[in-house]
Q: What sequence folds into this?
């Protein structure tokens, strides 16, 4: 369980970054996450994903190419699922990543889909049409799993729904086995990330700040991943990284 005081820690200060562009991006970003309590914000996120926007999530992910490009990461083994026995898909949404897990994970692997929204989990069940995954409704900051339960975690675009990364990262580190690996995808503090923030009521993260925060919890960035060479050239597509639990 994460102490509520940790949920309200101020964001870490930015070092060595130009201030003016960041201020302009802040004008574009949705700032609800900073204006209400964590409990109020969590309820808002649950309502957003339980409503019409959530119903369109899988379609939006397909149109933005996140589904086929995410599939390529796993199909080409750039994030290699082979050998993973207990996989947690946190922020499972409509099952966008879970669908790939069912295809590319070892047949004997257990898969747990976890999301804040029970309605999104219902949509995931209908979309996946598989009895393999377990579906658990839970808050990322209060995961109902024992320490070291998973040797592999996929965390796709959910960390940005926390006002501060540390509570979520602490829980992810807690439920991972030492040597376990995580595929982390989250919204970056650039122009496209600011638009994502506006639509989905989330925040953004600075790449280097997030790397340092992960290290505080023994989550070492093993390698940065990019959907395509063009994404890498343009620094687009958000933060996508393979992390190892130390």
A:
């Amino acid at each position: 369980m994460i102490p509520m005081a940790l949920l309200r820690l101020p964001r870490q200060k930015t070092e060595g970054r130009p201030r003016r562009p960041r201020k302009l991006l802040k004008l574009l970003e949705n700032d609800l996450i900073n204006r209400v309590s964590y409990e109020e914000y969590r309820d808002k996120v649950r309502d957003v994903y339980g409503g019409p926007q959530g119903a369109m999530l899988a379609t939006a992910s397909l149109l933005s190419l996140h589904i086929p490009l995410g599939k390529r990461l796993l199909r080409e083994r750039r994030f290699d699922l082979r050998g993973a026995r207990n996989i947690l898909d946190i922020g499972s949404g409509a099952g966008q990543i879970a669908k790939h897990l069912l295809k590319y994970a070892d047949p004997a692997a257990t898969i747990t889909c976890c999301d804040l929204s029970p309605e999104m989990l219902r949509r995931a069940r209908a979309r996946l049409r598989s009895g393999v995954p377990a579906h658990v409704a839970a808050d990322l900051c209060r995961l109902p799993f024992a320490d070291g339960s998973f040797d592999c975690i996929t965390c796709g675009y959910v960390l940005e729904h926390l006002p501060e990364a540390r509570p979520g990262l602490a829980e992810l580190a807690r439920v991972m086995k030492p040597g376990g690996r995580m595929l982390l995808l989250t919204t970056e503090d650039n122009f496209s990330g600011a638009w994502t923030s506006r639509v989905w009521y989330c925040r953004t993260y600075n790449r280097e700040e997030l790397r340092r925060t992960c290290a505080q919890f023994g989550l070492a960035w093993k390698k940065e991943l990019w959907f395509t060479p063009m994404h890498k050239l343009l620094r687009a597509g958000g933060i996508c990284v393979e992390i190892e639990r130390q």
Q: What stands out?
A: The first strand starts at residue 86 and ends at 90.
